[in-house]
Amino acid sequence: MTAHSTIPTSTGRPLLTLADLLRLSPAELDAAYAGARTPLDLDGDYDGVLLTAQFPPRPRQFGVAGVNRALPWRGKTFTAAEARGANRFRLAGRDFTLWPFATQVVPSQFDGAPTLLVDYDLPGNPAFFRHGVFDELRQLRPGLYLGIGGIRLGGRNRFLFHWALFRPE
Length: 169
Known about the structure:
single chain, mainly beta, Lipocalin, 8-stranded antiparallel beta barrel, 4 helices, 46% strand
């Protein structure tokens, strides 16, 4: 199965593919996230793609079509037995991990439904990441996951980006 496969659901409506996600608006991605389920099976390496990004103080949408090729972020790696992971990067031809995280199922800050929290509040992470960045993740179908994330500013959570994870081929 690839990230471009389409799998029908029990309702007959096909689940999204990675190619579909890349074409959706932020509102459509929010709806897809709201309809997705909490992943409980993440283990190993997953490739990542930034889908949308909005930046304050005046949020506006930035296209990400060519941005992903320039971004050093390549995805995440998970160790299910320890409920931990880290972000994967490639820079100057070198692969490395950065900004480790813990994972746990919690109510979403987005919609209150169960979600997998990617929690950066760990010793060794920069203070801004520990207290200012959050990610949540849900499963759209086997092997394809939709994440939302943002920052905490002025005591409020601001959802600023959508991202996807999928199994490398």
